[in-house]
Write a structure and sequence with these properties.
Helix content: 40-55%
CATH topology of the largest domain: Aspartate Aminotransferase, domain 2
Number of strands: 15
Radius of gyration: 22 Å
Bound molecules: pyridoxal-5'-phosphate
Strand content: 5-15%
Distance between the termini: 17 Å
Strand order of the largest sheet: 4-10-9-8-7-5-6
Number of domains: 2
CATH superfamily of the largest domain: Type I PLP-dependent aspartate aminotransferase-like (Major domain)
Structural class: alpha/beta
Shape: globular
Length: about 425
């Protein structure tokens, strides 16, 4: 490392000054390396992304946009933001990109700020059917200050009920219609949503937080040609820094830029924006595209193998990086499954399934995703092993790390992560 490259990530200096926090950094790395990370919203960003995050760009105040800042000394950070914007537009074929959102939720706030007044009506997927807190949950600003009309999935297909979306749109005449969520295993019919939005004169917003990485790798169809605005996180399948961004049609550019800053945010995090630029460059490579195809192949195999063991994927399978699994057939709750898997070194989350008879903090399902294990280089053969391990841990484990089943599964997990290490040394 030379000083001219950057002056961050000096672990030696940190551990000398602050042994408590440096110990957390190391033990968290050990935790990631020691288990199977199957949380569908997580990934393992590259050393290049982490380097930009740990840089002195963190220090710079740069309220405003490149060339139009409220502070001096912004020439260098302007270059970083311009690169991030240009790469983001090119990656998604978008008219306009704003890369300043601090997170997915912040990008979503900008959509409300740009297109709605408090009290206005919008349509979005209900949280228990796979939506997100920021899509109108009562505990969120979106549900407190606006009027959400939730749509859900069809009881038979367990996929989005497009006829219901159309019926609700005609009945409530929403300002905005939102598509996207946190537990949707299937592709979304953006063309149908666009047609419904046009019928009632609504803005069509896609919250692509979960699946934007698959779009970047061209492994699934893009919402960009159909939507007025697409918001997303940059840390899920996309594999960048923990942050957010949005792309939109030219006609909405000024309005959305003003909604991000100064309406919702103050100074942008320039180190994170530099890391987003690095990530967008990574995502434009054939290597990343191949990764996203493998993420989907792995996800499909994992769902199929779990199905064969009586753990049923909602909608019968998956087209994406995640599946939502119904545990009622094996007589285990989501909360039990999460704890038993954790005791065996498998990290996943309990999740409500559509029409769930259990309370959300118990739930009848789990959600599993393949972004992390695929980054580690695992393929479909390993997914077959993982499905068997999940099934054993969830149905036979007692949730105790010292139990014999947990120990046995943990040993097999260790063997897998030794062959496919996260952050290889
Ligand atoms: C993850 C997610 C978000 C929120 O992202 P944060 O970065 O956690 O704020 C918003 N919408 C959807 C659909 C998500 O899955």
């Amino acid at each position: 490392m030379t000083e001219s490259t950057f002056y961050g990530s000096d672990y030696e200096a940190l551990s000398a000054f602050d042994p408590e926090i440096s110990a957390v950094l190391i033990s968290e790395l050990d935790r990631i390396r020691g288990g199977l990370q199957l949380i569908a919203s997580e990934n393992l960003s590259s050393p290049a992304v982490l380097t930009a995050l740990g840089s002195t760009l963190s220090n710079k105040y740069a309220e405003g946009y490149p060339g139009r800042r409220y502070y001096g000394g912004c020439a260098e950070v302007d270059k970083a933001e311009e690169l991030a914007i240009e790469r983001c537009k090119a990656l998604f074929g978008a008219d306009h990109a704003n890369v300043q959102a601090h997170s997915g939720a912040s990008a979503n706030q900008a959509v409300y700020g740009a297109f709605m007044q408090p009290g206005d009506t919008f349509l979005a997927m209900s949280l228990p059917h796979g939506g997100h807190l920021t899509h109108g949950a009562k505990v969120s600003f979106s549900g407190k200050w606006f009027n959400p009309v939730p749509y859900g999935v069809n009881k038979e297909t367990e996929d989005i009920d497009y006829d219901e979306v159309e019926r609700l749109a005609k009945e409530h005449r929403p300002k905005v219609i939102c598509a996207g969520g946190s537990a949707i295993p299937r592709l979304i019919d953006f063309e149908r949503f666009r047609a419904i939005a046009d019928e009632v004169g609504a803005i069509f917003w896609v919250d692509a937080a979960h699946f934007i990485g698959l779009v970047a790798g061209k492994a699934i169809p893009s919402p960009v040609p159909y939507a007025d605005v697409v918001t997303f996180t940059t840390h899920k399948v996309l594999r960048g820094p923990r942050s957010g961004a949005l792309v939109c049609r030219e006609e909405h550019a000024a309005r959305l830029d003003k909604a991000i800053f100064p309406m919702m945010q103050g100074g942008p995090q320039m180190h994170t924006i530099a890391a987003k630029a690095v990530n967008f460059k990574e995502c434009a490579t054939e290597e990343y595209a191949a990764y996203t195809r493998q993420v989907i192949d792995n996800s499909a195999t994992l769902a199929k193998e779990l199905d064969a063991r009586g753990i049923r994927p909602i909608t019968g399978g998956t087209d994406t990086h995640l599946s939502l699994l119904d545990l009622q057939g094996v007589g285990v709750t989501g909360a039990e499954a999460e704890q038993r898997a954790d005791a065996a070194g498998i990290v996943l989350n309990k999740n409500a399934i559509p029409f769930d008879p259990q309370k959300p903090n118990i739930a009848s399902g789990i959600r599993v995703g393949t972004p992390c294990v695929t980054t580690q280089g695992m393929g479909v053969e390993e997914m077959k092993t993982i499905a068997a391990l999940i099934h054993t841990a969830v149905t036979q484990g007692d949730g105790d790390a010292d139990g014999s089943v947990s120990k046995d599964v943990r040993a097999q997990v260790s063997e897998l992560v030794t062959r496919f290490p996260a952050y290889p040394r």
